[in-house]
Amino acid sequence: MIEGCRIFMNNLKWWQKTAVYQIYPKSFMDTTGSGTGDIAGITQKLDYLQKLGIGAIWLTPIYPSPMVDNGYDISDYTAIDPRYGTMSDFEKLIAEADKRNIKIIMDLVYNHSSDQHKWFLESKSSRENPKSDWYIWRDAKPDGSAPTNWRGIFGGSAWEWCEERQQYYLHTFATQQPDLNWENPDVRQALYDAANFWLDKGVGGFRIDAIVYIKKPKDFVDGEPDSADGSSAIHDAIANTSGILDYLYEFKEKVFKGHDIFTVAEANAVKPEELKYWVGEQGAFDMLFEFSHSNVMFPTGEIWHSWKPFKLTTLKKALTASQTATAQNGWYPIYFENHDKPRCVNTFLPKGADPIKAAKAMATVLLTLRGTPFIYEGQELGMTNVAWDSIDKYNDISSHGQYEISLNDGFTPEQALEFVHLFSRDNARTPMQWSKEVNAGFTTAQPWLPVNENYLTVNVETEDLDKKSVLNYFRKLTNFREHNEILLNGNYEELLKDDERIYAFSRSTQGSKMYVLINFTLDEVSIQADFLNRANFVFGNYEGSDKRRLRPVEAVIYEETF
Ligand code: GLC
């Protein structure tokens, strides 16, 4: 190994070297026969996760919750939902994970709580109680209507009338998710205390939910209508409001600072010039999830019916922009799936592609870009979208909201359902496919959400035994990346920039260079890649390779030493 590279690697923090695995606990593994996954199920599968080569698990919320938004509506920030188990199950998970060198990352949902949280129940009870300003209350307009025309992210007005107080409260997401008032120092302190409670339990970091919405503008004014009902997306009115950084720095100071943890904020639409305040040594967080590449099909906002087919060059530009931005400031998570997105093979690769090759192609991009890769449960198997025949079969609250928006905006029920097929969050939430057994080995009961029908071939047990499976390709890649200084920290450079069929880039350190090329089409594509002349094939998603052409959805990695 070249000396410079060793120094590079040694400079990296543990969370920059490892891959992270995201678990949606409700759908991961049920050990009690309830139809819902639980914490003991996660502990049971730690050996599987260790073998996959991951060093941290991000758990989506496991706190007590009425489950209107599957745990993102929290009614107690320092307890475990009994559906998932007990605090001692959680402590056991931390201890067992620790033995395998795996950290547990908790999800902090601090823009809003559940409307069943005792803070909200108190706040809504009168205008005089001690928590009366823990949430965002406003009087009606003189005609009795909501204070503004803002539309919540799940559809419908972002305001809800409260009889007791004779006022409206604001909810950026569902009606049952009232926004907390971060202007109040007692609210902030209570949230910091809750995060410190989990640090004391030994968690390895936090994913911080919807953080760009915590600071509200001084004046609440109607936005430009962008839907037939005259409403306006709340995101445009409140995201990244000036003054937000003061809260974020306070958060860092009172919670994260001085701990060997990582923080990753869900932070849509942070401007590149502001990045340095958000991530890196001076920034509030270690990493942030931004949406530019995952939302390429939504050039004008996130209403599902407004989606447009995207060009590969648009996706490449978005990926290159974040690779370039973080080369100067900080570090990014790399992701193509999470619990809010459809499965990546359906989104990014053409219909009709060989599903195994397609999943491996996306895995190749995920694990060769610079940043911390986040693997979402089932992605390592090549799990795919579902398409149920009625909106009633969908659990995801945003699918119902978006279905209504489509109908209100003049689409037919069939068209509205088609948008749900494409973008429903349930695509990613169907139960994990463990085996060919009934319910894919996820549960012995009726699962809370139907299992994807492809579980007979796409499952852990089958793929474990098949050397050519998606699962074994992931294992190979996580291991390869973890021990490869070029992939860990080498410079990124985009190649063949204008090509609408191939995504190509290099990663380089002093003395060696790696080339990654992925054909995003179903065609065989010839390539003019002189840069490959002195490079040797490492591996890819087909047997062997040819420097002059790429087969349908082929992904290849080459290396050159000089
Ligand atoms: C984030 C979560 C999403 C949730 C929303 C409201 O975007 O990822 O699942 O519905 O915040 O908490």
End-to-end separation: 13 Å
Low-confidence stretches: 1-7
Average predicted confidence as pLDDT: 96
Shape: globular
Work out the number of β strands.
20
Textual characterization of the structure:
The structure is a single chain. The chain is α/β, with parallel strands linked by helices. It contains 18 helices and 20 strands. The chain has helices at 3-11, 14-17, 39-44, 46-52, 87-99, 118-125, 185-200, 234-238, 244-256, 275-278, 312-328, 344-348, 355-368, 397-408, 413-423, 460-465, 470-482, 485-489, and strands at 19-23, 54-59, 103-108, 137-138, 150-151, 159-162, 167-170, 205-208, 232-233, 262-266, 287-289, 333-334, 372-376, 491-495, 502-509, 512-519, 525-526, 536-540, 549-550, 555-561. The strands form 5 sheets. It has an 8-stranded parallel β-sheet with strand order 11-10-8-3-2-1-13-12. The longest helix has 17 residues, at 312-328. The chain is globular, with a radius of gyration of 23 Å. Residues 1-7 have low confidence and may be disordered. The structure holds alpha-D-glucopyranose (GLC). Residues 69, 72, 109, 173, 209-210, 266, 339-340 line the site of alpha-D-glucopyranose (GLC).
Question: TL;DR?
Answer:
The chain has 562 residues and is α/β, with parallel strands linked by helices.
